Amino acid sequence: MEEAAKRYLEKKENEFDIETVPRRLFEVLVSQGYHLHLIEPGRIICSLTVPTRLLGDNSLHGGATATMVDLIGSAVLYTHGVPASGVSVEINISYLDSAYAGEEIEVEAKTLLLGKAIGVVSVELRKKNTGKIIAHGRHSKYLVGSSKM
């Protein structure tokens, strides 16, 4: 069992110079291709056709989903006029269904709380054609520069 874990973590296939990977690679991979449908204070709705680059085995990778919760959850805080989206304190995601390459998904982010030092948002990913929830996330952020802590 330990050998299987070691092989998994020490994969050598597709080796490349890790130092040549762009900074914030996950953001670059996940932040392309959105279509914005609604932006208002405290709410964003956008959609994305799932590209193959975001797949795990055959479906939308959980890490890509988590990055969407992070990025779009952070973006909704900007709709309130905050100067920076802050630093993540907590991200919680419930994975409820799968999405596949070529499938259109809708992402809705809502502000739940915007305090002096903390912002909390909800982000839901749904299948656009059925409304079925793929994932539901909650993201809490410390709003840097807004507190005297």
Describe this structure in words.
It catalyses: a fatty acyl-CoA + H2O = a fatty acid + CoA + H(+). Its main location: cytoplasm. Homotetramer. Interacts with PCTP. The chain is of the alpha+beta class and 149 residues long. The chain has one domain (1-142): Thiol Ester Dehydrase, Chain A, CATH 3.10.129. It has helices at residues 2-9, 25-30, 62-78; strands at residues 35-40, 43-49, 87-95, 104-114, 118-127, 133-142. A hairpin with a 2-residue loop joins strand 1 and strand 2 (43-49). The longest helix is centred in the middle third of the chain and has 17 residues, at 62-78. It is globular and about 50 Å long. The protein starts with a helix and ends in a 7-residue tail after the last strand.
Question: How is the topology of this model organized?
Answer:
Layout: H1 2-9, H2 25-30, E1 35-40, E2 43-49, H3 62-78, E3 87-95, E4 104-114, E5 118-127, E6 133-142
Antiparallel strand pairs: 1-2, 2-4, 3-6, 4-5, 5-6
Family: Belongs to the thioesterase PaaI family.
GO molecular function: fatty acyl-CoA hydrolase activity
Catalytic activity: a fatty acyl-CoA + H2O = a fatty acid + CoA + H(+)
Task: Specify the structural class.
Answer: alpha+beta
User: Using only CA atoms, what is the Rg?
Assistant: 17 Å
Task: Look at the structure and give the mean pLDDT.
Answer: 86
In CATH, the homologous superfamily goes by the name Hotdog Thioesterase
Q: Count of helices?
A: 3
CATH class: Alpha Beta
Q: What is the global morphology?
A: globular
What characterizes the major β-sheet?
6 strands, antiparallel
Under the CATH scheme, which architecture would be assigned?
A: Roll
**CATH fold-type name:** Thiol Ester Dehydrase, Chain A
Residue runs with pLDDT of under 50 for 5 or more positions: none
The sequence of SSEs as H and E is HHEEHEEEE
